[in-house]
Design a protein that fits this description.
Number of helices: 11
Distance between the termini: 52 Å
InterPro entries: PrsW
Number of strands: 0
Structural class: mainly alpha
Radius of gyration: 23 Å
Strand content: under 5%
EC number: 3.4.-.-
Enzyme class: hydrolase
Number of domains: 2
Low-confidence stretches: none
Mean pLDDT: 84
Shape: elongated
Order of helices and strands: HHHHHHHHHHH
Protein name: PrsW family glutamic-type intramembrane protease
Helix content: over 70%
Largest sheet: none
Oligomer: single chain
GO molecular function: peptidase activity
């Protein structure tokens, strides 16, 4: 029993410790622990799905096992993990590059955790070296490959609101290549595990450290931009910006009542995004700003307007007013931390 417990620690603990370390690098606390726990579970589910799909493909096609692990399994497993992240991107649950990396690593950690538990049950008598390779090599590879997919996808899609599958392809290719190269074991398995443990976490830590500065600069710039835009809206200075000129022309495009709702929606959206950025800038200083009843009421009103305007109207607004995915994530953040549940957008 002690032998199995020790092997379990070697196989499962390293990647969880790394995921926790990455989470603590996030000075803005953009992701909650409960949300990350759900993503860890999602990663575990993808491991189960991968096992099912791999078994069916192996049964249906006459692959050599070694060739399958090198060329086919990486594509299936990385695609399933990537599918979870694509859903997160499309539902505005990823705000910045550091979020993407942490979520990707967490999903990969959940995948490797379930996979290693399965192998512990299957071949529990394997030598400790096997569990060292799986814990410090394979598990870190799963987390790192998925994190890199997430980071590349975030970088390519952060300014695009429309779904374009091709933007996710480069990150998927990188993840599959990393997985495939690891499975080739060009040298000894132990050395491959050591190289993986050294390179992937170091790369992620460097990216995160650089992105923390980028987030601060981005927030300050966006905060100033939204402050200026809000002042223009409050004083009726619509002609001072492209968004304002579009809003002035709305009554010629849609009925007056709908145009009024769209203008109110844009005003509330800008005000709430500014509030979310104020919260994030305060978190940098270790200050937690609570959301009050007034903000909750504004969220409710904005979501009511979304339902009234409809999908076609919202699509037109977002195209002409150049909403970014980060702004939509700001609204999602407020929805998540509001003391009372606000209605979700349609």
């Amino acid at each position: 029993m002690l032998d199995l417990a020790l092997k379990s620690v070697i196989a499962c603990l390293p990647v969880i410790v790394l995921a926790a370390a990455l989470f603590h690098l996030d000075s803005h606390r953009l992701l909650g622990t409960h949300f990350l726990a759900r993503m860890f579970l999602c990663g575990g589910v993808t491991a189960v799905l991968s096992a099912v799909v791999n078994a069916q493909v192996i049964a249906a096609y006459p692959f050599e096992f070694l060739d399958y692990t090198r060329y086919v399994a990486p594509l299936i497993e990385e695609s399933l993990k990537a599918a979870v992240l694509i859903w997160l991107f499309r539902t505005n649950r990823v705000g910045f590059l550091i979020d993407a990396g942490i979520l990707g690593f967490t999903i990969g950690a959940g995948f490797s955790f379930v996979e290693n538990i399965y192998y512990l049950h299957l071949v529990s008598d394997a030598h400790y070296v096997t569990w060292f390779v799986r814990g410090f090599g394979t598990a870190v590879m799963h987390g790192g490959a998925t994190a890199l997919f997430a980071i590349i996808a975030q970088k390519l899609t952060e300014r695009h609101l429309q779904m374009n599958p091709l933007l996710y392809l480069p990150g998927l290719i990188v993840a599959v290549l990393i997985h495939s190269i690891f499975n080739h074991f060009p040298v000894s398995p132990v050395l491959s595990a050591a190289v993986t443990l050294l390179i992937l976490p170091t790369l992620l830590f460097l990216l995160f450290e650089r992105n923390t500065v980028s987030i601060h600069n981005f927030l300050e710039l966006d905060f100033a931009t939204h402050q200026r835009l809000l002042r223009q809206l409050e004083h009726g200075e619509f002609t001072g910006c492209e968004a304002g000129r579009f809003l002035l022309d709305l009554e010629q495009i849609v009925p007056e009542a709908v145009a009024r709702d769209m203008i109110n929606y844009f005003y509330l959206h800008t005000e709430l995004v500014l509030g979310a950025e104020r919260i994030l800038l305060a978190r940098e200083q270790g200050i937690e700003i609570r959301i009050g009843a007034e903000t909750v009421a504004k969220l409710e009103e904005m979501h009511r307007l979304e339902r009234h305007i409809g999908r076609a109207g919202l699509k037109m607004l977002r195209q002409h007013l150049h909403f970014s995915s980060t702004e939509l994530w700001d609204i999602h953040l407020l929805d998540e931390i509001a003391p009372a549940p606000a209605h979700r957008p349609t």
